[in-house]
Design brief:
This protein is an alpha/beta fold. It has a domain of 75 residues: Nucleotidyltransferase, domain 5 (2-Layer Sandwich). 33% of the residues lie in helices and 18% in strands. A 5-stranded mixed beta sheet has the order 3-2-1-4-5, covered by helices on one side. Helix 2 runs parallel beside helix 3. It is rod-shaped, with a radius of gyration of 32 Å. It starts with 15 loop residues before the first helix and ends with a strand. The relative contact order is 0.14.
Length: 135
Amino acid sequence: MRIARRRSSSPEISLVSTSDVAFLLLIFFLSTAALSVERGLLLELPRAGDSPAVLPASRIVSVGVAADGSFDLDGTPVSADALRAALLARLGSVPDSVVRLRVDSAAPYAAFVSALDQVKLSGARQLSLESGPRP
């Protein structure tokens, strides 16, 4: 009498359901993840065809950033720390003023951001940006 051998099957792990679970986890995490959106600078740009506004000199506060990163307010040199206080005093006397921020094209970017932060912290509502070499 012959005894029939059992065929041994090798153990296998089905990977079909693993890919389905990975796909569902991917969809779940993508749909629940909070996406951060950088807003950047909120500036209202002029429309094409708009005529430039002409303002009296008494309503313009000029802030300059030189190539070496130094600041001036209406031609008077000020430190970065004193810029905000000087702007607050100037904007307090003429509340409807427009701040003209002149930045030398060779000025460091950090100096521009610092000046822009001080202008925003001073409460200025209207801002004009100019770039290029200083006159």
